[in-house]
Amino acid sequence: MAYYYVDKETQPTGEHDVHRSDCLWLLTERIFLGDCSSCAEAIKNAKEYFNSIDGCRHCSIECHKSEHKK
Prior knowledge:
This protein is of the alpha+beta class. 17% of the residues lie in helices and 30% in strands. The chain has helices spanning 39-46, 65-68; strands at residues 2-7, 16-20, 30-36, 53-55. The protein has a four-stranded mixed beta sheet, covered by helices on one side. It is globular, with a radius of gyration of 11 Å. The N and C termini lie far apart (26 Å).
């Protein structure tokens, strides 16, 4: 389990990134998503706030969209 957040600011590609609480890329403007068992659970929670979500390519690599294409 880990604490997850979603950035309020969108990425240039239009997504809001989901991060673990210990991520160096986590922005100050964020929404707490809870103590989640995986980034997939955190992304599900983030979809309550935003339509377009992506996992951080640094801390939630298994949920980062470019990783799904491989």
